[in-house]
Structures are given as C-alpha cells and as structure tokens.
Design brief:
The chain is of the alpha/beta class. The protein has a single domain, classed as Rossmann fold (3-Layer(aba) Sandwich), CATH 3.40.50. It has twelve helices and seven strands. It starts with a helix and ends in a 22-residue tail after the last helix. The mean pLDDT is 96. Bound molecules: thiamine diphosphate. Thiamine diphosphate binds next to strand 4.
C-alpha cells in the first residue's frame, strides 16, 4: 500500500481510538461507565501500527489498557462500548467491563486485570497452535510493569526454549501506576533483558505509527516463519492518568508536556500535510465521521439491556459439592 494511503488509514484509526477513549472518560463522569477505566491516550500508534502485521487467524492477548487494541483488531465498536456499560450487548456480555474485553471471532483473547496475566495465556496459545502445525502468531501486549512479574520470565523462557510463535509487545510508558521504571526494574534495558533469554529483540519509537508498522511487520514475519519468539519494546507515554483516580503526583507537568509534543496523531498529521495529502478540512471531516461512529456505539450501548438477574451466575465457575458430581 502507498505510504500516504496507509498514513491516512492509520490517522483515522488512531483518531477513532483517541475520540472513543475521550468519550469514554465523559461517560465515566456521567456514571454510565462504572468500575475501572484505563485510557491509552498517547499510546495509540502501537495498537494501530501492529495490527496490520497480524492475520485473521493470529491471536491477540492484551492487558487492562486494551480499548485501542480491541478497536484496531476490529472488535465491533458498539460491542466494546456496550461492554463498558456492563450491558448484555457487550463483547463479554457485560460480565467483564473495560478491563475484560473478549471477542472470539477476532481471536481477541482479553483483556486481563492481572498485570502480566496475558503473558502465559499468549504463550499457551502459541504452544497449542504450534502443536497443531499452524503457522500463526500469538501477539501479546503488556506494559513494562509486567516485566517485574514472575510470569514474564516463565513465559519468555518457555517461548524461547520451545521456539514458540509469540510476538511480545511491550508498551514502555515509563510508569507502572505511580512507579517509574527505574524504581521498579533492576535493569531498565528491556531489549537486553529479552535477549538474555535468547529472544530476538528491538526497541521502536512507539510515537511513530509508520515505524511501528514497518518493524512489526518484520517481527511478525520472523515469528511466523518458525524462528521463535520476538520481543518489541515500544517507547511511549500515556498522556492521561493511570486510571480515573490518580492525582499524578509522581510526574511533573513539564514532563507530560514534553511528551505531548510527540503526540502520535500530531506527528502523523504533520507528515501527511507535508506530503500534501491532508488538510485541516480533511481532519475536521474525519473527526465528524469518527464521532458519529462513536455516537452510534453509545446509542447501541444505551439501548442494550442489562443481563437478567437469573443469568448472573452463568459462566461462573463454582466449587460443587460431592453429591453434584
Ligand atoms: C499481579 C498484579 N499486581 C499488581 C496489580 C496492581 N496494578 C494494576 S496496574 C499496575 C501497573 C502496571 O503497569 P504496566 O504493566 O507498566 O502497565 P501500564 O499501566 O503502564 O499500562 C499495577 C501494579 C495488578 N493488577 N496485578
């Protein structure tokens, strides 16, 4: 695909994620969305740049900051919004909320509240696919905070040892809640850490969607060809709070402003304008289109019903008494 056409597509997709999350924050204020809500504003280039490298039959596993991943993967927008509302029309039937988006048709296997929880799931999916002789990739998004968890090391070790087709996608936004990376990890060279397991690894500018797309394609091709796992560290930043309750005392406004100058949307907008394929009018029109798509999703969520009370225990694993066996 021509770079300008691809750039315009990427811009629209990043804009959709940005506006979806900004609208979600408003709806949270209106108490339409309840529970936890983690926004990825500032990190959109990673979801949007990585997805085109994946095929329909590949698996995607994420963590709790996953709206962007789900949208970019093609999980229907209205089913994501309905899930945030806790409604039966949600992709997880309203059982999961923002942190537990799940959509089997897209092979989007969560959404997990447990830091690092997706890593062994993605590794297990890769093992299952390899045992079936399938040439698929199991892509796993996680934050650098997950690299302090035991499961990160177990997953990397087995993926490397058994040459499993896992694409490890670390979004290094510098903070795990209020803890900066140098206060959480003994070694902050993440690429080196991955290489110590014998896993091929690179660092990529996570604010530049075109670089993300180029590098992700090569990495996914490597994994698909049976070479084993690949680790990508994306240097990025979240522009908003960790979740909806966060006074942000751990970082300065100046630091946030410096990163905002590298906003992935602004960055791409400038590039496209320089190429002469994008104007302010185009942007305004695109914003209108995206906003009406999001409003349709909100209407769907509003109209969707709550799950009947008698179904609330459906899909809940219960310990059964001996007599029930
Ligand atoms: C196993 C586990 N430990 C602690 C927490 C509490 N917790 C929630 S988010 C978070 C920070 C994780 O940071 P990172 O993985 O870098 O992701 P980011 O929030 O930056 O996207 C922590 C410690 C949790 N959810 N799960």
């Amino acid at each position: 695909m021509n770079t300008d056409v691809q750039g315009l597509k990427f811009y629209r997709e990043m804009l959709k994620i940005r506006r979806f999350e900004e609208r979600s924050a408003e709806l949270y204020g209106e108490m339409k969305i309840r529970g936890f809500l983690h926004l990825s504003v500032g990190q959109e280039a990673i979801a949007v740049g990585v997805m085109p490298a994946l095929h329909q039959e590949d698996s995607v596993v994420s963590a709790y900051r996953e709206h962007g991943h789900a949208i970019a993967r093609g999980v229907p927008l209205e089913s994501i919004m309905a899930e945030m509302f806790g409604k039966a029309g949600g992709c997880s039937h309203g059982h999961g909320g923002s942190m537990h988006l799940f959509h089997k048709p897209s092979r989007f296997y969560g959404g997990s509240a447990i830091v690092g929880g997706g890593l062994p799931i993605a590794t297990g999916l890769a093992l299952a696919e390899k045992m079936k002789w399938k040439e698929t990739v199991s892509a796993c998004f996680f934050g650098e905070g997950a690299m302090a968890e035991g499961v990160f090391h177990e997953s990397m070790n087995l993926a490397a040892l058994w040459k499993l087709p896992v694409l490890f996608l670390c979004e290094n936004n510098g903070y795990a809640m209020g803890t900066s990376i140098d206060r959480e990890l003994s070694r902050t060279d993440l690429v080196q850490k991955a290489k110590s397991y014998g896993v091929a690894a690179i660092q990529v500018d996570g604010m530049d969607v075109l670089s993300v797309a180029k590098e992700a394609k090569q990495a996914a091709d490597y994994v698909r060809s049976g070479e084993g796992p690949f680790f990508m560290e994306f240097k990025t930043y979240r522009f908003r709070a960790h979740s909806m309750y966060d006074p942000e005392l751990y970082r300065s406004k100046t630091e946030v402003d410096v990163w905002k100058k590298r906003d992935p949307l602004l960055h791409l907008e400038q590039k496209l304008k320089e190429s002469g394929v994008f104007t302010d009018d185009n942007r305004i029109q695109m914003e209108r289109d995206v906003d009406s798509e999001i409003e349709a999703a909100v209407q769907f969520a509003e109209a969707s019903s709550l799950e009947p009370v008698e179904d609330l225990m459906k899909n809940v694993m219960r310990e059964r008494g001996r007599s029930e066996y």
